[in-house]
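Need Carbon-nitrogen hydrolase family protein's 3D structure for a figure. Predict it.
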Amino acid sequence: MPDKNASPTADQNPILGVAGVQMTSGGTVEDSLTQAEQAIEQAASVGARLVVLPENFATLGTGQSGPVAVEEAADGPRTLTRWAAAQARANGVWLVAGTIPVRQAGSGKSRARSMVFDPEGELVAQYDKIHLFDVDVGDAYGSYRESDYYEPGTDVVTWDIQADDGEPLRVGMSVCYDLRFPELYAALRRQGADLILVPSAFTHRTGQAHWGMLLRARAVEQGCYVLGVNQCGWHDSKRRTWGHSQLVDPWGDTRAALASEPDILVGQISREYLKRIRTQLPTHQHHRL
Ligand SMILES: O=C(O)CNC(=O)[C@H](CS)NC(=O)CCC(=O)C(=O)O
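Structure prediction for Carbon-nitrogen hydrolase family protein:
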């Protein structure tokens, strides 16, 4: 029996089981959806109540030039939004559908939209990736020009999930390249975020150099849990992502981590630990600028 006077440890009194689906999207959309369906079911079976898919889980690497705004096929049998809602309902989980490319009427470009579905399959929040990856990484893929296909989002988004203790836990939204911009994470913390999600397709080259460092930095800076859920492996002959999905606690310790293969990341959120770290290290009360 843990000493009730001892300081809470990071895993003490968990109030929410979370899971991240690390996958290698590619082949056809159907291939990717089948991978995701099996992983969501597995995550739910081990008690995760919040399941997060990686960036562009359905169409990354499908050989379709640029993002395929599958949403356009609104009359299609399995539009991604309807598919995600059905997965949340069928598995009784909160599902963050990584991102789905959603075509915008005005610009003709898409937005990388991260949608949140509750266990009844209702859309409760959506976030459009703000920072677009126009970078020359120096890998086999060469130049990434996300802004050729996507337009940026504009809004900072948080939403509440009712945790096992009956109290709300506030979840902050971000995507992939956003991870490099601390201002967004500061804004999410100002909105009250306790857990910040980072569905991603971080490249192998930049992931190896920066992914873990950036996840831990954002977690410590903001005193939040940060859940980074990445694509992994080779998506086609030139595109490779880093994997290494992980849950980082507000002290900066990695509580759960995957390697480079498709797998399910499972972790726990402790409200007591969150409060303890924020009390010991009240950086958010010491702002001067
Ligand atoms: O375009 C798609 O289909 C899915 N989106 C992506 O793969 C995006 C844009 S190319 N990738 C990143 O943002 C990587 C960021 C990154 O790796 C870093 O910041 O180092």
